[in-house]
Amino acid sequence: MRLPVCNFDIESNMLCPNCQERLDKGEITDFDIKFSKWILEKEKEFETLNDLHLLRAISVSKYLILIVNKRQAIILTKNEKLMDELRKEYGEVLIFEGTPKLRSAVRTLIAPAVEVGVNSLYLPTGGKESIVMLRDSDRSRIKFTPKELRIIISQIMNESVLFEYQGDRAKEEEKKGDEFDERMKELTQRRRRVR
Q1: Which of 161, 116, 155 is closest to 137 using CA atoms?
Q2: Where are the alpha helices (DSSP H) in 17-165?
Q3: Dist. CA 10–CA 51, nearest whole Å
Q4: Domains in the chain, start-ordered, CATH in brackets?
Q5: What residues contact 157, with CB distance under 8 A and at least 6 apart?
Q6: Per-residue pLDDT tens digits for 103-138
Q7: Alpha-carbon distance 127 to 26, whole Å?
């Protein structure tokens, strides 16, 4: 089994300089280490895990996100007992294969719906923020809220990703327009009283 951290580090409870540097840079997290210890213990019980190459383990809200090498999700999903233990210990399990690309990760979570578009903003700090637009008509087909999608995908991509339904922007602009109109009426009425 290949894990985000060296197997020796897990067994010795001490990170080697390479893994420590990756932790310091944010390439791996404390949860990667914690989960690696857990899954390494399970290898004794589930021999098929010997072939697993786990790239990342992320815990977000009530979800466990596992990123594995391509064509390796089946190593986990074909063993119902293992999947039950994962759910019991960590919550609902979401598995992604390979290094996830933004569009493919989004489509995995919102299927059968498809995003309308993705816009990326480059921030003055050098970072990047993406906004994914969703069809208003797909609202009932997507099991995650925009907030849950933002949290999950931002963790997977290691960058800020926002989600918005097309209708929400129109409603927000309409609301702002209504607030502006009300404010203008108030000001006009005050002016009349002053005269």
Answers
A1: 116
A2: 17-25, 30-42, 73-77, 80-90, 102-110, 146-157
A3: 18
A4: 7-97 (no CATH), 102-194 (3.30.300.20)
A5: 100, 102, 105, 130
A6: 999 999 999 998 888 988 887 888 788 999 999 999
A7: 15
